[in-house]
Amino acid sequence: MAKSRGGGGPGSPGGPHHSLAGTRESLAEPGGDELSSLGSDSEVNGGGPEERRVDKFGFIVGSRSAEGPLEEVPLEVLRQRESKWLDMLNNWDKWMAKKHKKIRLRCQKGIPPSLRGRAWQYLSGSKVKLEQNIGKFDELDLLPGDPKWLDVIERDLHRQFPFHEMFVSRGGHGQQDLFRVLKAYTLYRPEEGYCQAQAPIAAVLLMHMPAEQAFWCLVQICEKYLPGYYSEKLEAIQLDGQILFSLLHKVSPVAYKHLSKQKIDPILYMTEWFMCAFSRTLPWSSVLRVWDMFFCEGVKIIFRVGLVLLKHTLGSSDKLKSCQGQYETMERLRALSPKIMQETFLVQEVIELPVTERQIEREHLIQLKKWRETHGELQCKSPPRLHGAKAISEAEPPTRKALEPVPSIIIPPGPAPVPKARKSKEKSREKGLASPANGPGAEGNGAPGSARELLHPQVSPHHQSKESLSSRESEDTYL
User: Is 45:37 a contact under the CB 8 Å cutoff?
Assistant: First the structure.
């Protein structure tokens, strides 16, 4: 599974001190190939769909990926949250400009599952990016792609969440869309190509949105949230490893002292955490809550999660009794306690941890100076990191048109019963129907769109791939 620009890695890890510089090593731990074969295992693919039961997230019940009993949000509370989020999404530019703190609070509480995919697109700015590049994904989708990346991507497809209903079948729609998104990125950024850690990121996005939207969301993550993470020499991730270690000294001196004493480099335990945004580490309910906050607040959430895990794993003398050496410490970090990864506990700890963007940026300058003294200038010239939705919105102000909601429920045209109370208003509205229905008045009052928009939505003019539903057609699947 090792990857490099030449196709094969220059060497396998030889112990806790091996360097990742110059390569993009496999993210699987020793013994990780066991997981890579699960996508074709008869236990997974042998039974028909009628024999398969999945949990609320789409993971096959009985697999180690499936969630146990969860704390359910009361239905009434969930409906209230959906209503609030719909209001925000339909008036996104106003909320982002004047009530960003409220958006952050609601992301910390958790985005309603029915609106999560749409909310991630608005938070990341990928909705605007797509509208600015109509037809670009389809153009990339039709191109053949670079053979050196296509083979590597294809080999990685069945390793991504093999117990999820979208990706359980070799060659199924989930794997096809994952291939399309990753191939498109190698064409969009040929200087970066493909990094194995992008596959789980793209897979999580595809669980919540169609391929075109997932592609632009991946672009925003790679360029705005985690710039340089997926470049050839992994310089950005190594810098962030040192930033994490420096912040750990303030958050948990005990854990910091232990890792220093054992000479365990941060790159050995935080690479997969950060590059995959914990999608391969945490229980799924925790992954989604972390991603909700990550899209809103940026990379500081990833740092906070890492610090919380280190603090509660190595942060006391009692916890260190069973971690006397390098091997024992690494094993403990590979097999984290379910208790500290539990959704409610982890989210609360992350919210309360006082690590700010300013601290991260200050530490970044310190570590960058040290890097230049020992390694010289960075070879990867990445754009500056933007800390979350507010910073992205200010850097790339959206137009009103780019934020227009696409109807998710399409009502077939035809006569419908009109309530008596509204009959008297119909005559007065007849003249109004002759004028354009998309006028500013339709949006000014916060309505998602006029009656004409809902009954006769505009058809997307650009070509869609036949392998999956079009982005516009399938948007209702994700809302």
Answer: no
